[in-house]
Design a protein that fits this description.
It is found in: Cytoplasm. Pfam families: Pan_kinase (PF03309). InterPro entries: ATPase_NBD, Type_III_PanK. The chain is 40% helix and 23% strand. It contains 7 helices and 10 strands. It folds into 2 domains: 85 residues, ATPase, nucleotide binding domain (Nucleotidyltransferase, domain 5, 2-Layer Sandwich); 138 residues, ATPase, nucleotide binding domain (Nucleotidyltransferase, domain 5), CATH 3.30.420. By secondary structure, it is of the alpha/beta class. A 5-stranded mixed β-sheet has the order 3-2-1-4-5, with helices on both faces. A 5-stranded mixed β-sheet has the order 8-7-6-9-10, sandwiched between helices. It is globular and about 60 Å long. The longest helix has 28 residues.
Length: 257
């Protein structure tokens, strides 16, 4: 049984993969101080609650927070008796290496998104991931990650707006009924929602113009379904794209071992 761990700046997702399907997926806040023992107690409690029969003997990790990886390695070694694959480390091979400037370190989440998207949709893609940052990953015809764009995340922008303008409240991210708001909350919601619709559309159009070809656009991340509703931004929305990418990379490493 494979345990796939996707550690982002805000949340960490754990998923059990039996080789054909996910038996369970769980999410917790990312905290580098959390110990391997805490991970194990929390995870096994949720597994028992779901009544899943799971004997984990393989682990793969993708983490954008380097300090978290140590305790996740300890978790794999101490409780599951295995050495984990860590995306971005030399021992973890990719189906197609990235083609970027020499010396550039690509975020593991972006490499995993490229692998997962290519496996499901083939090449010539733009993957838009709504996380702490909003990232655009360009996947070439052969599945290689060839660069992209990083913009501030939606919730990060809202927090910055609230912090810099004391009179502006915290608001939920939602699609407003009208573009023109008639109160402060509606104005902020319209600015965030339609502002990011414009950002996504504009950047994707510029990427396609630069590459001189049409490209399929895949949305992922927690807010992708929200920004995909009522406005044709994406060809597909894939909630589990990153976790799926981890299973693809793990399978590739087993096949080429």
């Amino acid at each position: 049984m494979l345990l796939a761990v996707d550690c982002g700046n805000t949340n960490t997702v754990f998923a059990l993969w039996d080789g054909t399907r996910f038996l369970g997926t769980w999410r917790m806040a990312t905290d580098w101080r959390r110990t391997a023992d805490e991970y194990y107690v929390w995870l096994t409690s949720l597994i028992r609650f779901r009544e899943v029969e799971a004997a984990v003997d393989e682990v793969i990790i993708s983490s954008t927070v380097p300090r978290v990886v140590f305790n996740l390695r300890v978790l794999a070694d101490r409780y599951f008796g295995c050495r984990p694959l860590v995306v971005g480390k030399p021992e973890c091979r990719l189906p197609c290496p990235p083609r970027v400037d020499e010396g550039t370190q690509v975020g593991p989440d972006r490499l995993v998104n490229a692998a997962g998207a290519f496996d499901r949709h083939g090449g010539n893609l733009i993957v838009v991931d709504f996380g702490t940052a909003t990232t655009f990953d360009v996947v070439d015809d052969d599945g290689a990650y060839v660069g992209g764009v990083i913009a501030p995340g939606v919730n990060l922008s809202l927090e910055a707006l609230h912090m810099a303008a004391a009179a502006l409240p915290h608001v939920d991210v939602t699609k407003p009924q009208r573009v023109i708001g008639t109160n402060t909350v509606a104005c902020m919601q319209s600015g965030i929602f339609w502002g990011y619709v414009g950002l996504v559309r504009g950047i994707c159009e510029r990427i396609q113009a630069e590459r001189e070809r049409p490209m399929r656009i895949i949305g992922t991340g927690g807010l992708a379904p929200l920004f995909g509703q009522g406005d044709v931004l994406f060809d597909r929305v894939e909630d589990d794209l990153t976790i799926h990418g981890l299973t693809v990379i793990h399978a590739f490493n087993k096949e080429t071992a």
